[in-house]
Design a protein that fits this description.
Blueprint (H helix, E strand, L loop, with lengths): L16 H6 L5 E3 L8 H9 L3 E4 L7 H15 L5 E5 L10 H10 L4 E5 L4 H9 L3 E6 L2 H9 L4 E5 L14 H9 L6 E4 L5 H10 L3 E4 L13 H8 L6 E4 L7 E4 L2 H11 L14 H9 L24 H22 L8 H8 L1
Bound molecules: flavin mononucleotide.
The site of flavin mononucleotide has 28 residues, from β3 and β8.
């Protein structure tokens, strides 16, 4: 039986090093979603037994971010929630990073999803505040470096991941298996995961959790326009594409008119983000699609896991379905591992005659 509302603390059917590290019920991390993972969404996942992450960059200034932390603490009750710290390659855009971490610590946040280059300083600050750092990357080598830098766990996302999977072209489960040959800290695996059977598969591989984004885009608690969510429910797994390939920082998004306009400009030689103007900014999608429902405008982060999104429903219902599928698949695997009764040489010979 799985809850359709709040997960009951202590109900841990698939217990892992990450569920223990973060004190969560289920091995599901809902990675930060730029513009979308606000207090309501993050708290809904916390209450459902997963861990989600507020994205400070989504807010208009520190006061709005602080208010989101306060609201999320209240709405999550006693369940833990996290903050995503995505570092930009442009130093000027990281000016607030240390302050964002401090504010989160003041509001009781005990887990951070860090992303981007050189996380050492962030990890030191997070540890000094008594919290845990999970560093997310798209390359096995970067995950290993994060482990050396002191990350408590790593999240590895393959080429299927919605958003910015980096230039890594390898699929998630291949990256995960390669990483697990060398990692010692717990690992969450992500990219293209939208069904509970994949959660069981990731755990069977040796991962301690999954990280998911796209599948939760159709949660009732996601504030984006209803027309966009209805459109997403109808999309097959093939509906995503990789935009901005020539830039060196590709972006996995919903295939739409903006993607085709970007491709047209690339054919005319445009390469860098600045050359595409407003077209390649997240704000375009926020203003036209998330706010107004026009899913043809903006680069809208999304991956092939959208093929599993079949209804707009509360995040807790999605988590409950995922966990029911995962435990069923894990039981199937466990039953296959039951030792086959030894067959005597005589009986084996008789069966062949
Ligand atoms: C709409 C959307 C926005 C995202 N924004 C961010 C972000 O701001 N920072 C980040 O680290 N990851 C971001 N991601 C990536 C997710 O946190 C997660 O790693 C990814 O979605 C997992 O792959 P999946 O989409 O195949 O489930 C975003 C993903 C989506 C779908």
């Amino acid at each position: 039986m799985f809850p359709h509302q709040d997960a009951k603390p202590g109900a841990r059917p698939l217990r892992t090093r990450i569920t223990e590290l973060l004190d969560i019920e289920y091995p599901i991390l809902a990675g930060g979603l730029m513009w979308l993972s606000d207090a309501r969404y993050v708290a809904a996942l916390a209450r459902a037994g997963a861990m989600a992450f507020i994205t400070p960059r989504s807010f208009d200034g520190p006061e709005a971010y602080r208010a989101a932390l306060r609201d999320c603490s209240r709405m999550a009750g006693d369940r833990p929630f996290g903050v995503n710290i995505t570092q930009s390659r442009r130093a000027a855009e990281n000016a607030m990073v240390a302050a964002w971490i401090d504010m989160a610590l003041e509001h009781g946040v005990r887990c951070f999803e860090t992303v981007g280059p050189s996380p050492e300083r962030l990890i030191a600050q997070i540890h000094a505040g008594g919290a845990k750092a999970i560093h997310k990357s798209a390359f096995v080598e970067h995950a290993l470096k994060a482990e050396q830098a002191g990350a408590d766990a790593v999240a590895l996302v393959g080429a299927e991941a919605g958003g910015h999977p980096g230039t890594n072209k390898l699929p998630s489960f291949l990256c995960g298996a390669l990483a697990l040959q060398r990692l010692t800290v717990p690992m969450a695996l992500g990219g293209g995961i939208g069904d509970g059977r994949q959660i069981a598969a990731a755990l069977a591989l040796g991962a301690d959790a999954v990280v998911m984004g796209t599948r939760f885009l159709v949660s009732e608690e996601i504030w984006a326009h209803e027309n966009y969510k209805r459109h997403l429910v109808e999309q097959p797994a093939e509906a995503s594409t990789l935009a901005m390939r020539a830039s060196g920082n590709p972006w996995r998004v919903l295939d739409n008119a903006t993607v085709r306009e970007i491709e047209r400009l690339e054919q005319h030689g445009a390469r860098h983000y600045a050359e595409f103007g407003a077209l390649a900014t997240g704000r375009l999608g926020r203003d036209h699609c998330y706010r107004q429902g026009d899913w043809n405008t903006g680069l809208l982060s999304m991956g092939p896991a959208i093929g599993f999104a079949d209804a707009i429903e509360p995040a807790a219902s999605i988590v409950a379905r995922l966990m029911a599928q995962a435990t069923q698949a894990a039981s199937r695997l466990a039953s296959m591992a039951t030792p086959v009764p030894a067959v005597s040489a005589d009986a084996a010979l008789a069966s062949r005659l």
